[in-house]
Design brief:
Nucleotidyltransferase, domain 5; 5-stranded mixed beta sheet; globular; cytoplasm; acyltransferase; KAE1/TsaD; tRNA processing; tRNA N(6)-L-threonylcarbamoyladenine synthase activity
Length: 348
């Protein structure tokens, strides 16, 4: 089954074709992402109306480009998948409208995909994919969640952020220190040159039981450290390193607790912060010490992309799931409400 995937939940337009007949990573026939970073940079954050308009401009050319790179035409497709939520309602409607129109015109089945399920399943596209049950850490600009994955479509929320997500804390802390938009990647790059341990930041909520997160206090620590410092380039780098170490340590501690609580030895990490080099090193060391395994998607599939939507949609289409004819999106959508995927087919 060849499935066209469309992602338009926020400020990236993603398109991909996933072919379930091909093994492992070869199943991803082609994918492309157009980022709106330059568009939103002057505002210091995503402007929803501008994001929607840019999806309108970029989506059809990106579909044509992706199909050409896959050496396919629309007549070769067997289904269409699109992000139905959560996300910005206007941006979601653009992707959903195009996807449903294509499906109707080509007489193809379509399915709406949960954005975070797309992230969660992205590592399963790689060679030697993990098999459920496992624990997933979903860590991005909008989410910091620990999820028990009993099977595809059967998810139990183990822990969530009580305030800022980890990626959001990265972005806001970077902005406090005057780094350009988008701040998170800038801060992580700067941390590579920082001196570890110069600033002592807490590991929030690790001194008590539970699997929830809270990163808003770390922003305050960054603000105070920066305000009271000489505000030199080296100090900025040292604060960035101490902040990153605090976030990474916190995530690793909570992941180990979640593995203990579920009895699992397999951890899947997905979402934009999952591309962070220091987090990957820390979690790999933790998993190796436990005799377990940690799985990541390739770095370019950590951020929002059409490949994860095409793959998750293909699994649901093969299981017989279909979207109705209406253009419908869900800006707020609890992943625990998703139906289980009743299929014995495993791709990856």
């Amino acid at each position: 089954m060849k499935v066209l995937g469309i992602e338009s939940s926020c400020d990236e337009t993603g398109v991909a074709v996933y072919d379930t007949a091909l093994p492992g990573a070869a199943g991803l026939r082609a994918h492309a992402v157009y980022s709106q970073i330059a568009l939103h940079a002057e505002y210091g954050g995503v402007v929803p109306e501008l994001a929607s308009r840019d999806h309108v401009r970029k989506l059809l050319p990106l579909i044509r480009q992706t199909l050409a790179e896959a050496d396919l035409t629309t007549r070769d497709l067997d289904g269409v998948a699109y992000t139905a939520g959560p996300g910005l309602v206007g941006a979601l409607l653009v992707g959903a409208g195009v996807a449903r129109s294509l499906a109707w015109a080509l007489d193809l089945p379509a399915v709406g995909v949960h954005h975070m399920e797309g992230h969660l399943l992205a590592p399963l596209m790689e060679d030697d994919p993990p098999q459920a049950p496992f624990v997933a850490l979903l860590v991005s600009g909008g989410h910091s969640q620990l999820v028990a994955v009993d099977a595809i479509g059967r998810y139990r929320l183990l822990g969530d952020t009580l305030d800022d997500a980890a990626g959001e804390a990265f972005d806001k802390s970077a902005k406090l220190m005057g780094l350009p938009y988008p701040g998170g990647p800038q801060l992580a790059a700067l941390a590579q040159t920082g001196t570890p341990g110069r600033f002592k930041f807490p590991r929030p909520m690790t001194d008590r039981p539970g699997l929830d997160f809270s990163f808003s206090g770390l922003k305050t620590q960054v603000l105070l450290a920066w305000r009271d410092s000489d505000q030199s380039d080296s100090t900025r780098a040292d604060i960035a390193r101490s902040f990153e170490d605090a976030v990474v340590d916190t995530l690793a501690i909570k992941c180990e607790r979640a593995l203990d609580a579920t009895g699992s030895k397999v951890l899947v990490v997905a979402g934009g912060v999952g591309a962070n080099t220091r987090l990957r090193e820390k979690l790999r060391a933790m998993a190796a010490k436990r005799g377990g395994r940690v799985c990541f998607p390739r770095p370019e599939l950590c951020t929002d992309n059409g490949a994860m939507i095409a793959f998750a949609g293909a699994l649901r289409l093969e299981a017989g799931e279909r979207a109705g004819p209406s253009v419908f999106v869900t800006p707020r959508w609890d992943m625990a409400t998703l139906p289980a995927v009743e299929t014995g087919v495993t791709h990856g």
